[in-house]
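Risk register update: the risk that structure generation would not scale has been downgraded. Supporting records follow, first protein first.
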Amino acid sequence: MDKLTCIRTFIAVVEAGTFTSAAKSCGISKALVSKYVSALENDLNARLLQRTTRQVTITDSGALYYQRCKTLIQDLDDLDNSLKDAQENLRGLLKISAPVSFTEIKLMPVFQQFLIDHPLIRIQLDVSDHFVNLLDEQADIAIRIGQLEDSSLVMRKLTQIELILCASPDYLKIHGIPNHPDKLTEHTCFFDSNSRDEKRWSFMLDGRKHTVTPKCQLEINSARAIRELLVSHQGISMLPSFVIDKDIEEGRLVPLLETFQNPPLGVYAVYQHKKHLPAKIRLLIDTLADSFANE
């Protein structure tokens, strides 16, 4: 027999004053009310109610049990209601801003599964490598890579990426392998103009930041377009790891100057308010964090 049902029935008897009134409020028979209360008393090995033909009186043990159960049942009902409210709020539009290549390679599989799991939610995705103002664009969430400057925003780290200097083996056979960042000026380089470093590449040299301005024959605001140039043996570039990981693993590209590489860049979900965050926004952020944690 369900103990929670027995407890709820016992509470109803105490508050109604009689088995008959409790049966009406619970929508069950008087006999079933009596059966539930008796089962609870047998389980506790304690008399909770004194019955006579005219009235029901709560015992001292029953009064103590009632007070504790009343609080527990109220807390349980509040929890159930809060979760139901959250589920009911998992609907409507989510406006998201995110970088182009990172969205295409890493985020789209997560968004696709999220929409399958939550069919009442819609996503409006603004894909751009320019940082947007969440207030101006009315975005719910922005995915940002690298150092964040706006301290008024709340951020949650999702994962991290590396910027990897690389070239194809065929290019390196012809032009040689640079053994120092300063040697990059002797090579054909391609620069991702989405970078915030303004046509400079940074390296760590003897514990200090060392900046190089390579001779860039072509600038493109697309990491994936530059990747195509590299696998075609055209030159050297510094690209996010998620764009070229598979190429390095399969030998199409080779990492360079690994001992000079900078620390990884953080990837963050950024939003405006930490308190009273809508359930659908919090759910998507949690989903993104979980997806990267499982990689």
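Supporting record for the second protein:
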Amino acid sequence: MKKPLPADLQRWSEELAADPRSLAFLPLARAYRRQNRPDAAMRLCLRGLEHHPDNADAHGLLALLYIDRGDYARAADEWSFVLRLDPSNFDALRGLGFCHLENGELQQARERLERASLIRPDDEAVREALRFVADRMDAEDARAGSEPWMETPAPAGTAEAANDIVSAAPEPAVLPEPDPWAPAEQPAAGSAPRAGQPAVQAGSAFAVPDPARLFEAIVTGPVLGALLLDTRGMVLAGALDDVGGAADALAAVLGSVTGEAARTAAMLGLGAWEGLLIEAGSAVLHLAPAGDDAVILLVARSGAPAGWMMRSAAHAASLAQEFLEAYA
């Protein structure tokens, strides 16, 4: 990879300062990683993913940064997310293969590495890893059949090989979001929605069987649930089923937090606030505005991958917008 010049770093920094949504965060974060500034690279990458949650290159770079920290579990989560966006992404297949190999998961490692080999058959790291996997699996078969065997040590550089992966995937297409709601009859015009009844505006294509189920589609993996709150902290829609019955109390407390976030951003001249990430001992919380009079609260288990949180937050924002428009 060509080493960026100081002028490049300055240009990318100026682009980001002028437009926080700029994709200049990617080359700048890569440059920081090359300069052994992992914390700065991580911050840039996470901030960029807030604006571009479906960017496969950004998730791939985040995986590399986790590998640099020795956090193979989170790296594997990020590469798995890349494969959801781009099933043929070579770097993600190879990276996951090395993660499985590091964990001794030989069958999974072979499957990922074989798919990577079909894409780039001349990649020496993949070929060496596949030879090692085959030797290990043959040895395990022999041990199961007759005599014990001495475990073969992993080839030098197996763990470090993932550090050399350079994310070069093309800009991914945004995958269509599944429609989690079955068609429902519309209530009479002007009638107020009730729990268990569709929340829908006459003539609208959006229908929610139950406001409490608004965010049901995103409650997967580490995500525990989401709430749509008004500015007073009152719950408008959504549910949290795994927070000890404290959903209303949590909503009321965090409702005031968003006001502080808006005031702080204004006082510092940062513009309108777009999101707030809170990492606690037992959970990760993400807050984001939904129009002028509502807020979305997303709750996930502690240690939830950042990429998963950003993707879920973007999906929640889309659902909330449709829900609020149905009431307009």
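The beta strands are 223-230, 235-240, 276-279, 283-289, 294-301. On this basis the risk owner (M.S.) recommends closing the item.
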